[in-house]
Amino acid sequence: MSEPLGLRIAEPRFWDPDDLRREADRVFDICHSCRLCFKFCGSFPRLFEMIDQRSAENVQEHLVANPHLVEEAARRRAVAEASGEKLSDHGHEVAEAFGDELPELSATSADLSQSQIDEVVDLCFQCKLCHPSCPYIPPHEWGVDFPRLLLRWKAQRRRDRQPDGFALRLLRNPVLIGRLTRLAPRLARFGQRFAPGRWVLQALLGVHRRKNLPAPALESFPDWWRRQRRAVTLAPMSAATTAGVSVAAREGPPGKVVLFSTCTVDFNTPITGRAAVAVLEHNGVEVIWLEGQVCCGMPRLDGGDVEEAARAVAQNVALLHPWVKRGYAIVVPSPSCSLMLREEAPQLVEDDATRAVAAATRDLCDYVFALGRAGRIDKTFPKRIGRVAYHVPCHIREQQIGLRGRDLLKWFSEGVDLVQECSGHDGTWSLQREHFEDSLAIGRRAAEAMAQASSAGCGASCTDCPLAALQMNQIAGVRPEHPIVMMARAYDLPIGERQGDLFPKGVGESSLARFVSNGRPVSPGGPVHS
User: Which of 9, 53, 119, 369 is the most exposed place for a label (fewest CB within 10 A)?
Assistant: First the structure.
């Protein structure tokens, strides 16, 4: 069997509709026979339901056309009932066939229409939890890659049948949205709470009127960087530099990084970027931020706009690759964006530069943990926190790098309570009117688990994913922070306040960490757990 195509859009076979349908039928039939992933999203239950329903219809149609089968089956059941004692009476499992089971009439994915497969595709919000849970992913010979198969379906559908309208193109351009809100951030924040305006937004863009949107920060991260620091220039690469790169590679994580800040940090949670810079520099790491970064491309990829996603990848690679060649690591504070650069980008753009950038990219917490494992992290924290409720983002689990956010929190907390449920947000999926209620239903378990942990004694809520934080705030009122922000506060580093970041004003209740210094609380609130 050939290797799954994944997102290799340069392969002509990627765009072959007949090949796509054959692959969809093959993978869907494997999933239907396995059913391990029934719990992750609506795609799997709907797929199983439609195939099972078609099987039942096939059987019913056949029996109607052949009534003698029903009569014969009824006669055999009557005989079996009158035969006396059965093995099942002694607790043994037993299967009896009476002639109307007709397994040869079982449906397959090939019996589904194109519109039915569209239903399966639209219920997937690319959490990707099915991928690491699947027993048949490569290198298994069956090579199942369900989430990327659905992205391929979206890409072909978008190109051939359903091109994006203005609303979807805008929603999948977070940089443009961020820059527009920067023109008047206070007005934009007011507009998010202005009910008539939200009705207009729903009518024009399809954004559900009750969906909490990430609030624009009063000062963006790029503006803060420019205000605080000089411009970064690229020095010529010498033989000594090349030798230094090879030595650094042998000795573990390089002590110099490019911060790929991400759209959400740039425009909504700049405190995460400020904290990342402060923590890394406190531990002797050289940090640079580059003008010209664009969205990683994940929102466009999720919508099937693979060509625009590939263009975003190529633009970022052209910016980052010269620094990778000089031995810099790329650190990313958002799991979805690190996943995009590490795993999706090398498939969308298949060249050496993209592969080099992917290999040099690390999730921020994973990088910091690696420094700690190498003995290069200061673990004397002036302030500590009690127990922390930590939500594990789905895209951290997909990368299979370990739960490094939790591991960092252990350095300066009195314990970590894990919440490993999907928030149900995705990028733009949960914003859309038709998916908003489903997203809340999926995310409820995560949000309620975080709220229960807080009520049971956790003095802080935490997650690496800002959109998961926004979702849990909407559902349960918790206000999770990024682990790196908590680490900066534990160091007592001046990173500023969170006011104005991410959460809409007046929504939810603060669950900022109760920090202690010399055994005493330094922020008001509930008890400190020590």
Answer: 53
Q: What is the separation of C-alpha 511 from the centre of its chain, rounded to a whole number of angstroms?
A: 23
When pLDDT is averaged across residues 321-335 and rounded to a whole number, the result is 95
Q: How many other C-beta atoms can be found within 10 angstroms of the C-beta atom of residue 474?
A: 24
Alpha-carbon distance 30 to 141, whole Å?
Answer: 12
Does residue 238 share a domain with residue 340?
A: yes
Split into its structural domains, the chain has a count of: 4
User: pLDDT value at position 246?
Assistant: 41
Asked if residue 198 belongs to a domain, the reply is yes
Q: Are residues 135 and 93 in the same domain?
A: yes
CA distance 423 to 444: 7
Tell me, what CATH number does 368's domain have? 1.20.1050
CA distance 282 to 162: 50
d(CA 411, CA 170): 41
Q: Which segment of 274-283, 352-361, 502-511 scores lowest on mean pLDDT?
A: 502-511
Residue showing tokens 């329903």: 53
pLDDT in tens, 172-192: 888 888 888 888 888 888 888
Q: Are 174 and 293 contacting, i.e. CB atoms less than 8 angstroms apart?
A: no
Beta strands 286-288 and 520-521 are: unpaired
Kindly state the average pLDDT of the residues 308-317: 96
Residue 516 bridge partners (DSSP): 384, 521
CB 150 within 8 A of CB 124: yes
Low-confidence winner among 194-198, 213-217, 238-242, 443-447 (lowest mean pLDDT): 238-242
E strands in 164-255: none
CA-to-CA dists, residue 457 to 220, 419, 475, 485, 514, angstroms: 34, 15, 20, 21, 11
DSSP-derived pairing of the beta strands 515-517 and 256-259 = unpaired
**AA letter at 50:** M
Tokens standing for residue 303: 């919508």
Residue 279 sits in the same domain as residue 392: no
**C-beta of residue 186 within 8 angstroms of C-beta of residue 224:** no
